[in-house]
């Protein structure tokens, strides 16, 4: 079949597949679900899901903080009237299941057969302000929870429907903000926090940042391609191939029902810069052969033949680098690794179908720099090659010194994460969350499952006393600023039966008194604040609380101390406890991060080792290839340690991805070397020729990769910022190692035995 006809058929088939991809991409949606970051398959996740089915999720709430006007306290009648109006407005909203507010907080009093709820605050009776404020500051659970310690702010906490999705969640938040504006409350005087708030902001920013990153990448790559090839087709064809592969990759992701989240949002940018490698190697080789005077057809066949082997291997190693992320128990990382790996293979397929088809249909290009005048790249690379070998001892010595310092610095890296660690410290959302940490109980939820011993109920006096002991530890030692449990119910009932007097807010002294109290529990069970603290039959209870987001390192220490306390101080025949909750699950990710990263890197290294062994049948050559690619990884680990960058969910992917991408150029280099050695008996001359042939493509692809990843530093998400910065640095150090260490190591360690000439080959030739 004639080449042109084959090219037309290829373009037609690819066009139909691209149209199908566009259909699926049109259905793609942005989403950020906090729950997706729980460790999938973990027994603690299954336990929490069953627990939340009985008691409700611990993070389906929104905190609305309101600051009193300057010079006033929260007890001013006009301010409390606004708080009450907002409370009633929120209560009337759809998807709001419960509201806790200072103006709805009541002191229950049992008289006869009924319960009378006496409000703590009376905004319509200014003369009671001093009395009200005194009572509030003496009542447990109000100050630091609904009213700040300095009486300058209040919180309205409203529970929402379980796992509320973005559209209704955004609608609810918009309604609240509109009502705040209508009441004349400026943005500087209110603060919003909670899972729903973070999810809403994250999704909106993902949409904007994806467009920004893609635009910056297109501009940057277009400029670099123009500087490299100086022809319109040298710019357009690679862009068409890579944009096509992005469409295909997103189409596959959409077909499997996966949304764009904080991790998969990186796929288009990642693919855009990574996917350029194959097209640049093909076009560079194609232009080189044209420069040597070969025909268009021969040049294309040589380019495909020589680039195909190396590109196939590099696509394999890069995709494996992404596929190894599937070892993660975190669903967004798993999806990112799976679909980016698939997209890399699709890019390879397009590079060797779409690109050749377009080159066949284009006229033979007129090269701007004829071969007779010489190529400046050859001169630059030749001088670089001579300089590197002349100063090889310095290169190795400096590399060893930098490597030693990096390893020492890398030992300072710590695994630490917080609930909002993807936001920078000055981000408005994070500042709002910090407001609740500073003025109130905090935003980090705490959950402890309580199960009475055999033959007991959660209202057994011994069970209650053990629970109270745990509460005291959590408040005094662990750091909970707010706590509620079945003990809260019994104490509240006792207080209510004794006229609402605060001194009666304690556990009963005898079983007889407890029996009288438990008969009255049903009067309180329907109260929102007590409803989710114990099951109706008393077979299980819940201890819940809030605290500042102390970070996973500190949380792990606190949890270890808590478990030790529970083992030694709580009688398991009376009360059995189990730590659970969303924060506990997020902390558990840290236990898997290091293991996942080591597993991913190990798989990468094993695959590269196997590829090199198959190519060269040489263990020495395996070390030659691995060293220049592991050195940049260790240097960047040193940079992380020196800069105090913690290992967390978003940064744990850096090393695996960087190694998978960085090894690409090495694979291209050694695959070309393998081909050159078939015609060139001298190892030195073969390495030099390969250096000149592959050097340009290595430099150009590395510049595109570094530039492409550097666009991510403009992200408002810290995780994305560090992915861009650190992978960019890895690839920058990688190209330096590629052009300096690699040729030295090949000449020092590789024992090449030419088929025709068996005499020893000098290490260096002038």
From TrEMBL:
Its keywords, alphabetically, are: Cell membrane, Membrane, Transmembrane, Transmembrane helix
Q: Which domain of life is it from?
A: Bacteria
The membrane spanning regions, by residue number, are: 210-229, 236-260, 266-287, 308-330, 336-362, 393-411, 593-616, 623-643, 649-670, 691-715, 721-750
GO terms for CC? plasma membrane
Q: Where is the SSD domain?
A: 239-361
> Which membrane topology describes this protein?
Multi-pass membrane protein
Cellular compartment(s): Cell membrane
Q: Tell me the InterPro entries matching this sequence.
A: MMPL_dom (IPR004869), Mycobact_MmpL (IPR050545), SSD (IPR000731)
Q: What is this protein called?
A: MMPL family transporter
């Amino acid at each position: 079949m004639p080449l042109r006809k084959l090219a037309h058929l290829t373009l037609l088939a690819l066009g139909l597949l691209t149209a199908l991809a566009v259909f699926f991409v049109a259905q793609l949606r942005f989403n950020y679900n906090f729950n997706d970051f729980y460790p999938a398959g973990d027994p603690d996740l299954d336990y929490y899901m069953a627990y939340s089915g009985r008691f409700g999720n611990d993070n389906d709430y929104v905190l609305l903080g309101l600051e009193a006007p300057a010079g006033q306290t929260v007890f001013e009648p006009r301010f409390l009237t606004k708080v009450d109006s907002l409370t009633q407005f929120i209560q009337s909203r759809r998807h709001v299941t419960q509201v806790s507010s200072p103006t709805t907080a009541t002191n229950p009093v049992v008289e006869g057969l009924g319960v009378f709820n006496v409000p703590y605050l009376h905004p319509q009776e200014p003369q009671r302000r001093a009395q009200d404020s005194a009572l509030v500051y003496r009542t447990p659970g109000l100050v630091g929870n609904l009213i700040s310690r300095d009486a300058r702010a209040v919180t309205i906490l409203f529970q929402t429907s379980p796992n509320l999705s973005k559209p209704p969640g955004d609608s609810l938040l918009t309604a609240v903000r509109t009502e705040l504006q209508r009441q004349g409350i400026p943005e500087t005087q209110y603060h919003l926090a909670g899972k729903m708030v973070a999810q809403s902001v994250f999704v909106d920013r993902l949409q904007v940042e994806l467009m920004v990153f893609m635009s910056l990448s297109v501009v940057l790559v277009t400029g670099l391609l123009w500087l490299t090839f100086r022809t319109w087709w040298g710019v357009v064809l690679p862009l068409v191939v890579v944009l096509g592969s992005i469409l295909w990759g997103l189409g596959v992701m959409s077909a499997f029902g996966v949304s764009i989240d904080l991790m998969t949002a990186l796929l288009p940018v990642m693919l855009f810069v990574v996917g350029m490698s194959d097209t640049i190697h093909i076009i560079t080789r194609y232009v080189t052969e044209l420069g040597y005077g070969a025909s268009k057809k021969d040049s294309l066949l040589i380019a495909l033949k020589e680039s195909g082997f190396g590109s196939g291997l590099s696509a394999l190693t890069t995709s494996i680098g992404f596929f190894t992320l599937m070892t993660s128990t975190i669903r967004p990382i798993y999806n990112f690794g799976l679909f980016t790996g698939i997209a890399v293979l699709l890019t390879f397929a397009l590079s060797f179908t779409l690109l050749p088809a377009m080159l066949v249909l284009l006229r033979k290009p007129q090269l701007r720099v004829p071969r007779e005048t010489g190529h400046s790249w050859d001169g630059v690379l030749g001088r670089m090659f001579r300089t590197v070998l002349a100063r090889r001892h310095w290169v190795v010595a400096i590399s060893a010194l930098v490597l030693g310092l990096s390893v020492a610095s890398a030992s300072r890296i710590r695994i630490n994460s917080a609930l909002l660690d993807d936001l920078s410290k000055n981000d408005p959302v994070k500042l709002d969350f910090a407001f609740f940490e500073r003025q109130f109980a905090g935003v980090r939820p705490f959950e402890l499952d309580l199960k009475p011993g055999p033959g007991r109920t959660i209202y057994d006096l011994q069970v209650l006393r053990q629970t109270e002991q745990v509460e005291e530890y959590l408040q005094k030692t662990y750091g909970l600023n707010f706590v509620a449990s079945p003990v809260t119910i019994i104490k509240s009932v006792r207080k209510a039966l004794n006229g609402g007097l605060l001194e009666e807010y304690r556990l009963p002294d005898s079983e007889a008194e407890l029996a009288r109290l438990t008969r009255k529990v049903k009067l309180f069970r329907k109260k929102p604040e007590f409803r989710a603290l114990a099951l109706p039959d008393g077979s299980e209870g819940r201890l819940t609380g809030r605290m500042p987001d102390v970070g996973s390192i500190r949380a792990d220490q606190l949890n270890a101390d808590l478990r030790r306390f529970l083992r030694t101080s709580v009688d398991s025949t009376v009360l059995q406890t189990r730590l659970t909750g969303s924060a506990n699950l997020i902390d558990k990710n840290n236990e898997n991060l290091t293991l996942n990263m080591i597993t991913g890197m190990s798989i990468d290294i094993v695959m590269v080792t196997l590829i090199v062994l198959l190519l060269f049948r040489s263990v020495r050559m395996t070390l030659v290839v691995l060293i220049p690619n592991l050195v940049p990884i260790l240097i960047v680990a040193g940079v992380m340690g020196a800069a105090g960058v913690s290992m967390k969910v978003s940064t744990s992917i850096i090393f695996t991805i960087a190694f998978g991408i960085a090894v690409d150029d090495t694979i291209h280099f050694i695959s070309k070397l393998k081909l050159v050695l078939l015609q060139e008996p001298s190892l030195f001359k073969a390495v030099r020729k390969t250096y000149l042939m592959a050097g340009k493509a290595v430099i150009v692809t590395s510049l595109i990769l570094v530039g492409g990843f550097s666009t991510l530093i403009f992200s408002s998400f810290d995780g994305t910022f560090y992915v861009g910065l650190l992978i960019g640095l890895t690839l920058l150090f990688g190209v330096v190692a590629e052009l300096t260490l690699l040729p030295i190591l090949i000449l020092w360690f590789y024992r090449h035995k030419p088929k025709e000439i068996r005499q020893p080959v000098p290490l260096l030739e002038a």
